[in-house]
Amino acid sequence: MEKTDSNVAGIYGLLATFFAREIDLKQLEMLRNPEFRDLLETLGVNLGDDFFKRDATLLLEDLAVEFATLFIGPGNFISPHESVHRPRDDGDYGKLWGADTVAVKKFIEATGLAYRPEFGGMPDHIAAEFEFVQKIEERMETARSDGDQDLAENLKSIKNRFLTEHLLAWGPGLMDKIMTNATLPFYREIAALAKNFLQQEGELIQQQAVK
Q: What is the pLDDT of the chain when averaged over all its residues?
């Protein structure tokens, strides 16, 4: 699949949505739309026939339980925050509101973007990081449409730096843990999509660096 600014931003947006909270009926209906199903299959996502045939209410209940089990607890859940997963030389990791939380918050605010008033999560939540890159991609697309190549290049540099310093440094490892612990195809497949997509983004950064 050829990647354009528009569909790159769209993928980041989808990932942000799916990791921010459990999916609702409107999102389930979108996912079950034949055109959207074809798009997911193009991206290598196979949710299985049961996802499309099962009673919607029962499926949403199962997905909500899976989301809580994976990311909220109680029990042995996976905290989806950079400061918990990314090792640091100074030892300030493995906990919420660590040094990387502060670093991500400062990075995002330095670009002029702000968190939505209703956002109650931490700045280094995986969904917040995905959404930040989505917004940068959208700004890049607008800049290119307006013919402002200098701004577009500056935004690309911001995106690449954020990916290198943050999302690529811990995101793929988080996805491995999700794939290992997920019991339903949905989160296992979405995590696989996220990991593969991040790896492609990392490879693109490396290719750009040697040009």
A: 91
